Amino acid sequence: MKKLIVAAFALMSIKASAQYVQGPVTDPAEWVNPLMGTDSRGELSNGNTYPSIALPWGMNFWTPQTGGMGDGWQYTYGSSRIRGLKQTHQPSPWMNDYGMFSLMPVTGAPKFNEKERASWFSHKAEVVKPYYYSVYLADHNVTAELTPTERAASFRFTFPKTDKAYVVVDAFDRGSYIKVIPSERKVIGYSTRNSGGVTKNFRNYFVIIFDKDFDQSFAWKDGKEEKNPEQTGNHTGAVVGFKTANGEQVHAKVASSFISFEQAETNLKEIGNDNFETVKNKAKDTWNKTLGKIAVEGGTVDQVRTFYSALYRMLFFPLKLYEKDAKGNIVHYSPYTGKVTPGYMFAGTGFWDTFRAQYPFLNLVFPSINKEMQEGLINDYKEGGWLPEWSNPGYQNIMVGNNSASVVADAYLKGLRGYDIETLYEAMIKGANNEGPIDAVGRRGAKYYTTLGYVPYNVGINENAARTLEYAYDDFTIWKLAIALKRPAAEIETYAKRCQNYRNLFDPETKLMRGKNEDGKFQAPFNPLKWGDAFTEGNSWHYTWSVFHDIQGLQDLMGGRESFVRMLDSVFIMAPDFDDSYYGGVIHEIREMQIANMGQYAHGNQPIQHMIYLYNYAGEPWKTQYWVREVMNRLYKATPDGYCGDEDNGQTSAWYVFSALGFYPVCPGTDQYVLGAPLFKKATLHLENGKTFTITAPANSEQNRYVKAVQFNGKALDKNWISHFDVMAGGKMNVNMSATPEKTRGTTKAAYPYSFSVNK
């Protein structure tokens, strides 16, 4: 406690006495605010996050549950009551959860209905860390604490003096099982609740072992106490009771498995004989080691907090669906076959969001975990027949595109090896040329796309222009991988040609992308401010820039450099007007664009997030530098309302983390990071290959946001990009910052980043 008090005063001193944090951050887990983004609701997202108490990419997360059973908004900052401490695997409130159950300490009466057992709480009596959670439950006079491992967790409940102390175990509805075993101080059960993407035999088995004999116990089913301690039904649970002295602590060790009760017992060995504090310290060490791969210094207190809070959000999804059996072998429950199968499996990400920056970040800083993820994708294909585009834990029928191609290609092209890339390539080709069993697997409209060169507007396929643009980019990544794998020349040329299909939707009259009918005529009428319809959660002003691989080609279509820059400028100059008629009302993404007050720039959704960096392709990189800093300053903060839209499984956070370092992967599938301007005076990347890459900007400040000159390993860098492989080789990039734009650097075509039309 004394150390905590000293640390708190030290932090207050930093804030009060210095604008910038001096020296490198050495305890990054303490800078994270897991509540960032939790002040959200369906009609307005400030992140749509929940506090995830877990280890990086852990199979199970834990969160305090304020929402009702089945509510995707399972924790919201404005709530005042907690219903339980819930195991969760939820990637998004829109996708909801699967395999959940909860524990809730109560006193006075063994109330197990979630509303009746709920307790008032205050954020003033809540401690939220990545590795630890504590809350005082006022109605029960109990302090509940938890700390995680990858597949297990340790709980500590501090009770008052009472003969009526209880822990309620809730296995949730839609089919569950519970069994109380007093002789072993144990409760076991399983939950089958899910949101699709699983087989009929799906179960999340759990085991809970207490360190104190039960004074009383019973099982309950469908709202009624039952005499039989073993129950199967729609909604089951258990209550175990204790007599406690004032301040007495009751501990519980909890583990779960998607495979069996026996495997859950094996997973419980992650805790072993460790006491609560040991588990907590190990969890904190894991977080500090993982977050510490990037050490920043010379930022403000708020900037450091926001950076590590965003980095924390990037280290969860996709989560590990695999387990280690009693012999230490990697095995997993397959959401496609329902069988237990050897090998890796991951779940819970939408590639429509995360291909853009989240996966490129893994390739840079955490390639070993992405290698496991690539092996998991192989198993997705072998067991399900397709690569997923959204998994939760199996295929989900949501969003558009075939961006698994980008995720696969970018990993291999950036040097990941040691897995079956040929099978992944086979899966990519299948997905690129066929419609799947559901719309969001393979390519909806594939026959139109491959014959006409676009998905028509008038053939009953929604969001057709968005599909076309994303398919064209995905074909580019297939082309790049096909070259690397030395595929036949005719095959390579097919994808080189198809990656230019974006041209088929460019309307020279408006200089924007526009839906096109099957007969070759553009859709009419056309309102470029109309959200949805031909586009996905955006309008033409957002999606026109989705030519990641050929910005020069897009620039040429728009009439050249000056016209292209004017179009970029217009995004910020225009009013945030919109047409919501496709949706029949204002969706939250529209509202978030409105209130951001940045014109048509809708950073709260993914399609336009790279657009700011495109000034580098047109000789005006200082505008990128200005707008990157504006977005970081205006739209991100380590507070409950700290995001400007859905965080989306690490993508919106990845934009911030990359941008704070000073570069961004505009086009995954190439080795280039397009330059912006660093946020910190110094940032050090500790790479997995043992190398260190350091970005220094000693003159950086709020006023000095422009790049005057760049040196890379001691030599002047005139290009507007750096290579992934140069970063991986280690070294130093020094950025000379200025308060005024430098309009002579990076202005020639030789400085521009990759474009297919120029660099093929």
TrEMBL record:
Residues 263-738 form the Glycosyl hydrolase family domain. Residues 1-18 form the signal peptide. Its EC number is 3.2.1.-. The keyword Disulfide bond does not apply. Its cofactor is Ca(2+). Residues 31-257 form the Glycosyl hydrolase family 92 N-terminal domain. GO terms for molecular function: hydrolase activity, acting on glycosyl bonds. Transmembrane segments: none annotated. Keywords: Calcium, Glycosidase, Hydrolase, Signal. NCBIfam families: aman2_put. Monomer. This is GH92 family glycosyl hydrolase. It comes from Chitinophaga horti.
